[in-house]
Predict the structure of DUF1206 domain-containing protein.
Amino acid sequence: MKPSEALPDDLAGESRFQLLTRLGFAARGLLYILIAALVILAGRTEDLTGALEYVGHGIGKLLITVLGAGMAVYGLWHLTDALFGIESGRHHWKAWRKRIISAGSGAIYLYLAYKTVWIVFAGRFGGNETQSRTADALQLQGGELFVLIAAAILFGTAIGQFFKVARCNFLDPLDCTEHQKRWIKWLGRAGYSARGVIFLVVAWLLAQSALHHNAAEAGGLEQALDFFSRDTRGWVAAGLALFGVLSLVEARYRRIHRPPPVEEVADMVAEKLER
């Protein structure tokens, strides 16, 4: 965007919420870089919670407190988009699809923020949550179907990551020069490819656990990284690190719209109740 171009009212003079959302993008980026560094430098595979626990001692508690605050705001930003369409739009089917995805992302990152609070005060959060949740689901009537549906959703998420690789639409919300976008494009392609591969493996692990009625076969990010050989794992981790760098780029350059004012929200709620 050229300096002479006027910014919309919801972008000009960024609010505190918008600035904190940038902290959220940065927190997401640092977390992915940490996970990748543990794989490449220490030979450790951790999920998002494990990475937080790894640094959750001594001065590391200050770091994960900052990360937790960032993820909380990032989650709230996604939920705000889901409710009001401030980023996704409002009145077409693609907007509703994006808003549903935003709702899911918001819930996940708010849960991660909750985990950071637990880790700061308790030191650890718990065991393998994916396997625990899968075991609970498999005990239900028709539980295998529920797990297969979850696997299908993750498979669809993986395909969505690969669409981003092909279309490079992650560049659209960035306020930077075309020269900068040329290298950001390849950064994003590598990062989203790695994320897509991880989602595919997690979907496969869930599907196997459903078909074999064995929760121990399910897994999250940590088990997905363990799925690969040592050399391949390093390349996938490098891709996740690049996704983390992309998140830091987004923290700097992404256009972030303000949420609607309280008065407008109240009017929208009143209008819905009158129908």
